[in-house]
């Protein structure tokens, strides 16, 4: 698998550029500073391009899954469904297609491992058993391990990128509030990590009034080869989040390659930086 650390090009929905001019300007200025290319995607219906764009397995292999999320099934939201085949064609990309139903925001990847919430089992229950689904994912993405973590029902989309990210091949970063969840959830969540040989560290905050509506969003950072961009929300946790990222990613920190951007308006839509970008290796 191509990891985030290997990517050198970032795409945004054209709609993001139109609707968030200041944020787009700030983010792309940071990318340019760190020699990361960028462009926009035409024909998109919403800004969250992570969810519908293909998964890059190798430099020339992309997998286009079935993007048909449950949260876009009603008449009100159906108009927000983007069609990845049309978008890919518009940028000259010819991905391989699969019948697997998933959202890109539910795929957290390292070189030989993918982490997803178990919502993917529910989405594909008419076509795959859990066992056959696991084998299908391994085959598609050419990986050795798949880690299925419990769906955090406080997050209606069922995406893993608001819960967990890779620090390196053997260690993940998680949102610390999972320690407050039920014993059953914790046993399942941490058991899956242990079973697959993954260590973890937590994002934790020591502030008088934690802002739980926003502070989950730091983990939805954007990582590329030369830079990590973390969101800021104008809350007490901002400074502590930045300091923790410097500790978690020392190779980036020592070369001043961890940057901040104001994402207070972006998060109002339910996602942050990872959600509204699609980064690849060119």
Automatic annotation (TrEMBL):
A GO MF term: protein-arginine deiminase activity
Protein keywords: Hydrolase
Xref: InterPro entries: Peptidyl-Arg-deiminase_porph
Biological process terms in GO annotation: putrescine biosynthetic process
Pfam families attached to this UniProt entry: PAD_porph
Gene3D superfamilies tied to this protein: L-arginine/glycine Amidinotransferase, Chain A
Family annotation (PANTHER family): AGMATINE DEIMINASE-RELATED
Record protein name field: Peptidyl-arginine deiminase
